[in-house]
Amino acid sequence: MIIEILTVLPELLTSPFEHSIMKRAQSKGHLTIKLHQLRDWAINKHGQVDDYQYGGGAGMVIMCEPLANAIDDLQKEEKFDEIIFVTPDGKRFDQKDANSLSLKNRILIICGHYKGIDQRIRDLYVTQEISIGDYVLSGGELAAAIIVDAVGRLIPGVLNDETSALTDSFQDNLLAPPVYSRPVIFRDLEVPPVLLTGDPKKVEEWRSTQAIARTKERRPDIMGE
């Protein structure tokens, strides 16, 4: 899978992809992440990619020409399966979206900055608009990193235990159950005895019951209640 990111600040995205699971995903050849500096398609020698917004108001807008030229160039040999713009007014990103995107071959994520991007790029090129929450960031780079991490870990072969992702929170519209490790007793708190039985059926029943109870308590909205 190839995920490409178009941004004016690629340096913000270097570190998140050079460690842990995302690093292993790339070293194993399961995921390729490409960062593109939007200023490479600037409209002049000064590296300009933004201008004042029509109608007045504070904040600059990323212009049509740099974005359109960049997207056109990047698609010369192969079209993107999805062109995503990360924006506060997009659809709230969830696990179902991550699952769906993990099945794609090539994705482009556009990071906004300042007051965002010219609406005409959204109309002409963008296939999905995604928000990671009801708040505003300085730019789309951190949101893009979250999306890449959520999607990349689902690609077959990325996780050492491929069943791990299937038991994450929000799979099957449930939060994950509590988890325990050594020691059996810590500050008078004990591991639930069922987890020590070695009986896979009983353990699974306990985990299912706990997942349902935790979801009802904390996030009944994802159960449709």
Overview features:
19% strand; alpha/beta; 5-stranded parallel beta sheet; 225 residues; single chain
Compact overview of the structure:
The chain is of the alpha/beta class and 225 residues long. Helices cover 28% and strands 19% of the residues. The protein has 6 helices and 9 strands, in the order βαβββαβαβαβαββα.
List the helices and strands and how they pair.
Blueprint: E1 2-7, H1 20-27, E2 32-37, E3 50-52, E4 60-62, H2 64-74, E5 82-92, H3 95-101, E6 106-111, H4 119-124, E7 128-131, H5 141-152, E8 185-186, E9 189-190, H6 200-218
Parallel strand pairs: 1-2, 1-6, 5-6, 5-7
Antiparallel strand pairs: 3-4, 8-9
Please describe what this structure looks like:
There is one protein chain. The model has no long low-confidence stretch (mean pLDDT 94). The radius of gyration is 21 Å and the shape is elongated. It has helices at 20-27, 64-74, 95-101, 119-124, 141-152, 200-218; strands at 2-7, 32-37, 50-52, 60-62, 82-92, 106-111, 128-131, 185-186, 189-190. The protein has 225 residues and is of the alpha/beta class. α1 links the parallel β1 and β2. It has 2 domains: 2-152, SPOUT methyltransferase, trefoil knot domain (Alpha/beta knot, 3-Layer(aba) Sandwich), CATH 3.40.1280.10; 169-223, Trp Operon Repressor, Chain A (Orthogonal Bundle), CATH 1.10.1270. The protein has 6 helices and 9 strands; from the N terminus they run βαβββαβαβαβαββα.
